[in-house]
Amino acid sequence: MAVDLGRFGVWHQAQKWGPELAAGLEELGYGALWIGASPTADLRDAEVLLASTNSVAVGTSIVNMWKDDAAPVAESYQRLESEHPGRFVLGVGIGHPERDRQYKSPYETIVDYLDALDEGKVPVDRRMLAALGPRVLKLAAERTGGALPYLTTPEHTRQAREALGAGVLLAPEQKVVLETDDEIARAVARDYLAGYLALTNYTNNLKRLGYSDNDFADGGSDDLVDALVQHGSAVEIAEGLNAHLEAGADQIVIQQIGKEGPDLLPGYEALATVLA
């Protein structure tokens, strides 16, 4: 990967980002700011974060291939590279059959999209691919600078590293709740996970990791919820995040849930202190 992303990044949907949060996270030392929830082809959300910071990397996680054609995305990439050279990473992915009506031939669609990004002169080492299963992980290693697994566990990180091999950047996302009361933390987690556990791309991946239909019932078993959303003190969460590094991750992409906007900063400050 041509851009230095650091060991710890932060992921949020576009509506949660803003200049104050971005600048605060850069000051705290986080290496990358990731924009989720299918950013638009014009990449204006990324432009806002780049303009409100000085040197931190900004990436999309991910631009949805069904929603936006590769050609305008590549044009936007070139604009951002001209305005903020060396700081933007283009993350792309296939989305979900439940949310994308035209979802078909997903693997072939990914290949065609990457071909179009080649035509748009988006460098291989400046783009990443949302990848969960072995086949797409292998494609990420062959055609991009790295993989962006979402809603995973340290065990998946270990398997992903084996599939990718050495020299390919691996940046799994990990949700966290800074709350030491188990019941409160799990309630926050289950509320947030509800939509994700209705998506087969995620549940099929979790089944490959050994979880069953029983784990998806009633908002998720305690074991599943605790794996997907780490909770506790900053020190306890840091231990869980480091498990991804030990399993082969290059960067951990942290998503703190239960707060909004600048209210997220105290939690990220607490984590930055112990992660450092």
TrEMBL record:
Residues 20-117 form the Luciferase-like domain. Coiled coil: none annotated. SUPFAM superfamilies: Bacterial luciferase-like (SSF51679). NCBIfam families: F420_MSMEG_4141. This is LLM class F420-dependent oxidoreductase.
